[in-house]
Amino acid sequence: MPRQFFVGGNFKMNGSTESIKSIVNNLNSAKLDASTEVVISPPALYLPLTRELANEKLGVAAQNVFDKPNGAFTGEISVDQLKDINVNWTLVGHSERRVILKEGDEFIARKVKAAVEGGLGVIFCIGETLEEREANKTIEVVTRQLNAVAKELTKEQWAQVVIAYEPVWAIGTGKVATTEQAQEVHAAIRKWLHEAISAQASANTRIIYGGSVSEKNCRDLAKEADVDGFLVGGASLKPAFVDIVNSRL
Ligand code: PEP
């Protein structure tokens, strides 16, 4: 079975009640490629509003989740709380959390495990900094990030994971990876899945690209064999998101 194309929209810490209503209503009424899975990720405060307003074809993701079930963890949100409001996806390991909030590989891996065991889908973000790319460490870095999660999941649990390859130097910078750069890393991730997890995980896991994806560059990126979709930041707040969802039409 071919991998279903997947487009995620990460609103980051942007939006208000009014603007999020308008984005979701726009998506509800847009003609979206029915063969693409679309999941939007507003700030936590707007998750209930988004889930209530979005039609059933649109998935909704938290931007983060904690690795403990409940208790004295001020400011955190649990897997069960997300499920309680019918939010079935979460991002984990976004580079802004890795770099700005200093989340490490092991903590991120525990969060992926908690989310997967609770039945959520996980958009697991990985990627190298500019310094790491320039030192030819891209594959080493993404392999390290993947290995941390591999320690926590069973082979079967990878079915709940979408891997988002997001080079840190391309996020929010307007500097998109070339189609060759994206394909090269995606192919390496697929090879890793084959060797470290299973042939099935390698064939079935969606590997999506993120980093300055726009309505202008999405079509060429979408043609690459191992690019199964996108994680979109800035452009997910704009009408251009519809064109990105429809990049294969
Ligand atoms: C992101 O936040 O995951 C992202 C890819 O951002 P942008 O599209 O703005 O680069």
Automatic annotation (TrEMBL):
Catalytic activity: D-glyceraldehyde 3-phosphate = dihydroxyacetone phosphate
InterPro entries per UniProt: Aldolase_TIM, TIM_sf, TrioseP_Isoase_bac/euk, Triosephosphate_isomerase, Triosephosphate_isomerase_AS
Recorded superkingdom: Eukaryota
This protein's record includes keyword Isomerase: yes
EC numbers, comma separated: 5.3.1.1
Any one GO molecular-function label of the UniProt entry: triose-phosphate isomerase activity
UniProt keyword Isomerase present: yes
Keywords per UniProt: Gluconeogenesis, Glycolysis, Isomerase
Homology family: Belongs to the triosephosphate isomerase family.
Stated name of the protein: Triosephosphate isomerase
Organism: Aspergillus sclerotialis
